[in-house]
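in:
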């Protein structure tokens, strides 16, 4: 049991919580009276948010080992998460009684006192934090620590500590130091220096690593409330105490003035490295009730972790993207943007402190057991006069928080209650047709105000569909066809409007006009088939005859060969009649996303990547995002139409660090014949095998380039997808592979060639792993549940230089080692 207990601790430290829980449970079963197991199980359950179970485990540990201070401390922490503060204090008093120098217990007792609003007891006890590794070492030590005596012109260096929000909250004490006659320096991280310098009481901000000017005294920021004897009634809460850069305010005001509606800045994700982040951060989807309030426009203030949720938000959010803070410095643009907003609504992050320090109205969504500074049982904050607090009524209940936020927002805006929905009888085909049109609008309309109406109507109709339409493969297939027709109608109408703007009314305009009624005929036929299939009681009829398909061109208007649509990793131009890549991008907004997820585990910023057989760049764009502008992507594609799309996608996404080459990659130099493909045909455009007999085909002759001839000074990753020519590519890259030892990702879908390919890779001293990801991803970008690819997978080999380690366990990566 002791071994199982220790294994559980090790697994918990690795973040493998479910496995750790199983080991603790096994240890408890084998030896129920082992207090350490109950204590460790309580710690794990607390981390998982299973507080009631954690309390039971801790109580049992305390029963078995009543004189262990650690057990009482852990029980107190769990009780604090339930806001049972009196019980928590009793446990902490007992822990300190058993071990008077128990720093963690002292620090936790300070936090409980502060959370209760007992600041007089809390601040002195909070000094124990310096003996706890969780808080880091005490900064400074070169000068005497200030004790509150008059400064009389002396210079004091204030050390920022803990998180960004803490520094922003407590820099307010610089004004009190000024009143005592001191000159104020603030030592902080490079990322905080620009915004803290916007505090008028700060004479100079000095980033860590910079040369310090002369100073006389020093003090950590969070020691100042103790020195000034701060109580709830004497908190220095004059705002604003930070000021944004006026030039940035003017610039952002100009950019945002065109946005209509009540502008709300939102942030939802804190620092994931913070141990309490799981409780305080909020999934972006939870903000949906705010988007349903009439007249509201949501603007993202989120940076870094959390922004990956934006493309999947079920409501419109304006994303200011990389323009926010990337040039002026962290928080600088954000502060300027806030001055043009009507309100900020955020989780407990530095954004809340920034808004409060600027005097901007801010509503803060808090977990049931909040951080100590937000106290308990009140809707206001004594630290920030312009802040309102919205608390979870029970642990984890964000729905109640956001329903209350939305209700208060409606009250503030004077929104009228929505009129009841009008219910009319219609055919099932008409219902499904309307849903597909709204789904297209959801993807293509950029205006946030219009999108709110689209989302609202679509959600209502989808609820009706889910209630009355039984799903089947046949029905899903007809719906997919109907959506495709409506997408083509959308494109044709856009083309017609373009012709009108340009006064082009020639044969092309006539063909487009003819295609409208031809597509509508097909649309009607699909709706009719859906009605028949589902037994609709209402069936609409058309009053005109079918289009005459014996027209000049056989009634077939020329279909657009290309489409441009937003996809998971950016806007992509693709061929919709390509049965794999094009179809996947059209239906799902991504292609083989599980491969991309694996690449993300393998690549780093600044890496050099060779994408051999890049096709239209569906993965090239994703790879370029991973390496960033400091990296370099060399993309090779021999097929001319695919190469044109590849170049367009690189330009479309502003990927200046990608180099595209119209070339095949092989074992030696030369040229190779690449046939033209009919863009109107439905085929696998990426499945063209080169090197076969093309004597009767129309071909382009493109260069054949071995990788070794490129002599790349550095190469970190090579992706090879060349339809059977993988061996040729590797044979022409042997020098590079031995010199640079890149990771390889090689297509391996031809059983007759696989043994030789694997043997060759092993001869180059690589370890091989199978990676067979499915083409269909249920969590796809377009949230399309219809799987048109069935059980089709991509067959690939992940090849690591021998003696290298996987970045994560194989089962988490979805790979399996190939045993020789």
């Amino acid at each position: 049991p002791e071994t199982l207990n220790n294994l559980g601790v090790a697994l918990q430290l690795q973040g493998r919580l479910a496995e750790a829980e199983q080991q603790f449970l096994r240890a408890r079963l084998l030896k129920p009276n082992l207090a350490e197991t109950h204590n460790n199980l309580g710690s794990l359950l607390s981390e998982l948010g299973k507080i009631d179970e954690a309390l039971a485990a801790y109580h049992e540990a305390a029963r078995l080992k009543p004189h262990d201070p650690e057990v009482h401390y852990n029980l107190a922490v769990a009780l604090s998460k339930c806001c049972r503060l009196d019980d928590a204090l009793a446990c902490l008093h007992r822990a300190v009684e058993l071990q008077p120098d128990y720093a963690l217990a002292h620090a936790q007792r300070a936090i409980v006192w502060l959370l209760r609003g007992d600041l007089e007891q809390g601040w002195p006890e909070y000094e124990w934090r310096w003996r706890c590794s969780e808080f880091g070492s005490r900064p400074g030590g070169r000068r005497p620590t200030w004790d509150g005596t008059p400064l009389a012109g002396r210079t004091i260096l204030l050390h920022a500590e803990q998180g960004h929000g803490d520094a922003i909250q407590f820099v307010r004490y610089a004004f009190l130091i000024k009143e005592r006659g001191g000159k104020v320096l603030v030592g902080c991280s490079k990322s905080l220096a620009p915004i803290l310098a916007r505090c008028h009481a700060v004479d100079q901000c000095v980033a860590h690593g910079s040369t310090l000017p002369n100073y006389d005294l020093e003090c950590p920021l969070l020691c100042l409330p103790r020195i000034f004897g701060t109580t709830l009634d004497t908190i220095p809460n004059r705002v604003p105490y930070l000021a944004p850069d006026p030039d940035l305010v003017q610039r952002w005001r100009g950019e945002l003035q065109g946005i209509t509606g009540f502008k709300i800045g939102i942030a939802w994700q804190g620092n994931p490295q913070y141990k309490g982040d799981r409780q305080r951060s909020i999934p972006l989807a939870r903000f949906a009730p705010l988007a349903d309030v009439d007249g509201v426009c949501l603007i993202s203030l989120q940076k870094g972790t959390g922004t990956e949720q934006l493309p999947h938000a079920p409501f419109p959010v304006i994303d200011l993207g990389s323009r926010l803070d990337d040039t002026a410095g962290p928080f600088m643009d954000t502060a300027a943007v806030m001055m043009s907003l009507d309100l900020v609504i955020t989780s407990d992050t530095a954004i809340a402190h920034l808004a409060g320090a600027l005097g901007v109205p801010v509503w803060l969504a808090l977990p049931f057991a909040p951080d100590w500074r937000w106290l308990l049982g009140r809707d206001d904050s004594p630290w920030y006069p312009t802040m309102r607090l919205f608390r979870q009524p029970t642990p984890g209940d964000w729905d109640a928080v956001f329903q209350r936020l939305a209700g208060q927002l409606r009250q503030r805006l004077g929104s009228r209650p929505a009129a009841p929905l009008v219910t009319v009888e219609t055919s099932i085909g008409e219902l499904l047709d309307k849903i597909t049109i709204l789904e297209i609008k959801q993807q293509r309309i950029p205006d946030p105000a219009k999108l709110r109406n689209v989302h609202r109507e679509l959600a209502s109709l989808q609820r009706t569909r889910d209630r009355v339409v039984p799903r089947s493969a046949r029905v899903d297939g007809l719906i997919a066809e109907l959506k495709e027709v409506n997408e083509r109608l959308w494109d044709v109408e856009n083309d017609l409007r373009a012709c009108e703007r340009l006064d082009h009314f020639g044969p092309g305009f006539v063909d487009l006009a003819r295609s409208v009624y031809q597509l509508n005929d097909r649309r009607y036929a699909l709706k009719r088939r859906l009605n028949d299939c589902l037994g609709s009681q209402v069936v609409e009829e058309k009053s005109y005859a079918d289009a005459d398909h014996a027209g000049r061109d056989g009634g077939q208007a020329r279909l657009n060969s290309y489409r441009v649509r937003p996809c998971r990793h950016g806007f992509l131009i693709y061929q919709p009649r390509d049965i794999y890549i094009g179809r996947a991008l059209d239906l799902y907004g991504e292609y083989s996303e599980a491969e991309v997820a694996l690449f993300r585990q393998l690549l780093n910023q600044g890496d050099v990547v060779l994408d051999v057989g890049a096709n239209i760049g569906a993965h090239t764009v994703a790879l370029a995002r991973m390496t960033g502008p400091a990296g370099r992507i060399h993309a090779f594609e021999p097929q001319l139409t695919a190469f044109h799309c590849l170049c367009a996608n690189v330009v479309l996404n502003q990927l200046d660090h990608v180099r595209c080459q119209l070339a095949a990659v092989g074992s030696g130099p030369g040229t190779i014949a690449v046939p033209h493909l009919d863009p109107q045909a439905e085929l696998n455009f990426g499945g063209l095998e080169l090197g076969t007999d093309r004597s009767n085909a129309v071909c382009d002759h493109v260069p054949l380039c071995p990788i070794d001839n490129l002599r790349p000074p550095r190469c970190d990753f090579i992706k090879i997808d060349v339809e059977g020519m993988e061996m040729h590519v590797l044979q022409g890259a042997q020098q590079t592979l031995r010199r640079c030892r890149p990771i390889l990702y090689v297509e391996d879908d031809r059983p007759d060639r696989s043994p030789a390919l694997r043997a060759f890779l092993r001869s180059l001293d690589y370890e091989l792993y199978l990676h067979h990801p499915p083409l269909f991803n249920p969590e796809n970008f377009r949230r399309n549940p219809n799987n048109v690819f069935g059980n089709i997978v991509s067959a690939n080999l992940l090849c690591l230089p021998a003696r290298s380690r996987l970045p994560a366990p194989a089962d988490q990566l979805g790979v399996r080692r190939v045993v020789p």
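note: The longest strand covers residues 699-705.
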